[in-house]
């Protein structure tokens, strides 16, 4: 079958799934978000309003930011968004937002939410994956200590064992229900612990097909080498690599921390270097599609076109299970339908 490239400039098709009112609201919201002072002071004001139970705060948040970025606060309330996307052949990844939790009860609760998400997803025809954050299942400082290879006390070893069991329970359930799990990448100083844990999960659950995906932040100078090393490890241990590629979300924080500790920044020096790293990682994955399932997780049209172009050139079926395109809700444009 002849395959065609999408034309991202055809806005009629791109935004067919949005009403004029939704688009106007999105433009307004993105203009606001482009104003750094407004974002900084608005976030502070918002947090203060929530903490002090100021009337109407929840309604205002729900009607603005929330509507644009969240599909729903419960599984049931997400069904409308899921079905709207499904109409345009867009699948949904369930992403339960939980991080920075502090108690054993919180982490267990988050694990149970992830397990419930898998139950819910398995009953939907267009929800093949869920997304999780290890910081929703573990104490941040513990991840930091494990990443730094510091010796854990006996109590901490038990705590770490429980974190591993929670992550394993989620991956196992996803595996049993034929769903996938994206495991988010976070700050560099906790990421080694996350990476090692994800590698263990991939070794266990990615033997025949890809259930577990690690996330590679291409704003990091070391990520191409790490991608290749992860692939080598997968080949040596006979499992498939799941690679979700992103540019990375913690750039300012990473640079500030490195500067304050007088360490070299782990982040590429400029956007062009990050773009080049992203494309290099994407190309590597594309050249090894037999053993790597890649998720092109970006809103960058050039990166999306790049993979689409290569797929068309090489006549790779657009529904190939090892090529995914993924965006956050409301930043989508329905050309991904065609892909
Ligand atoms: C489905 C999905 C899942 C995601 N999961 C994660 C995740 O697990 N972990 C995570 O960290 N992020 C995650 N992100 C966010 C992602 O890392 C990016 O922050 C976001 O998508 C913007 O990058 P872009 O490729 O879409 O767009 P672009 O606009 O092309 O790129 C913006 C990005 O480029 C990089 N950049 C910008 N300026 C510079 C500079 N001066 N120097 C170096 N680099 C620069 C930054 O990473 C910035 O976020 C996810 C995004 C998506 C769509």
Notable traits:
single chain, 339 residues, alpha/beta, TIM Barrel, seven-stranded parallel beta sheet, globular, disordered C terminus, binds flavin-adenine dinucleotide
Topology readout:
Elements: H1 11-14, H2 20-33, H3 36-51, H4 57-69, H5 75-87, E1 93-95, H6 104-122, E2 129-132, H7 140-147, H8 154-176, E3 180-183, H9 188-205, E4 212-217, H10 223-236, E5 241-246, H11 251-260, H12 271-287, E6 292-297, H13 301-313, E7 323-326, H14 335-338
Parallel strand pairs: 1-2, 2-3, 3-4, 4-5, 5-6, 6-7
Helix pairs in contact: 6-8, 7-9, 10-12, 12-13
Task: Provide an overview of this structure.
It contains 14 helices and 7 strands. The protein has 2 domains: 18-77, no CATH class; 88-338, TIM Barrel (Alpha-Beta Barrel), CATH 3.20.20. It has helices spanning 11-14, 20-33, 36-51, 57-69, 75-87, 104-122, 140-147, 154-176, 188-205, 223-236, 251-260, 271-287, 301-313, 335-338, and strands spanning 93-95, 129-132, 180-183, 212-217, 241-246, 292-297, 323-326. The chain has a 7-stranded parallel β-sheet with strand order 1-2-3-4-5-6-7, covered by helices on one side. The protein has 339 residues and is α/β, with parallel strands linked by helices. Bound molecules: flavin-adenine dinucleotide.
């Amino acid at each position: 079958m002849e395959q065609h490239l999408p034309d991202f400039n055809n806005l009629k098709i791109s935004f067919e799934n949005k009403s004029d009112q939704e688009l106007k609201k999105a433009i307004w919201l993105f203009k606001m978000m482009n104003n750094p002072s407004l974002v900084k002071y608005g976030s502070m004001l918002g947090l203060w309003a929530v903490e002090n139970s100021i009337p109407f705060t929840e309604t205002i948040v729900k009607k603005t930011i929330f509507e644009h970025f969240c599909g729903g606060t419960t599984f049931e309330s997400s069904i409308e968004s899921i079905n709207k996307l499904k109409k345009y052949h867009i699948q949904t990844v369930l992403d339960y937002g939980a991080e920075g939790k502090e108690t054993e009860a919180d982490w267990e609760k988050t694990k149970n939410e992830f397990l419930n998400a898998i139950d819910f997803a398995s009953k939907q025809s267009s929800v093949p994956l869920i997304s999780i954050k290890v910081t929703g299942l573990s104490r941040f400082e513990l991840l930091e200590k494990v990443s730094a290879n510091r010796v854990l006390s006996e109590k901490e070893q038990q705590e770490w064992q429980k974190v591993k069991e929670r992550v394993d329970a989620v991956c196992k359930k996803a595996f049993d229900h034929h769903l996938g799990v994206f495991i988010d990448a976070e700050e560099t100083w906790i990421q080694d612990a996350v990476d090692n844990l994800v590698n263990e999960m991939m070794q266990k659950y990615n033997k025949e097909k890809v259930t577990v995906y690690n996330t590679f932040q291409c704003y990091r100078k070391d990520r191409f080498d790490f991608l290749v090393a992860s692939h080598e490890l997968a080949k040596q241990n006979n499992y498939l690599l799941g690679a979700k590629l992103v540019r990375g979300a913690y750039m300012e924080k990473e640079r500030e921390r490195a500067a304050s500790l007088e360490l070299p920044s782990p982040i590429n020096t400029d956007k062009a270097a990050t773009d080049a790293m992203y494309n290099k990682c994407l190309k590597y994955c594309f050249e090894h599609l037999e053993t790597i399932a890649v998720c092109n997780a970006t809103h960058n049209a050039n990166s999306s076109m790049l993979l689409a172009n290569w797929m068309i050139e090489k006549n790779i079926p657009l529904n190939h299970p090892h090529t995914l395109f993924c965006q956050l809700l409301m930043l989508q444009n329905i050309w991904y339908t065609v892909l």
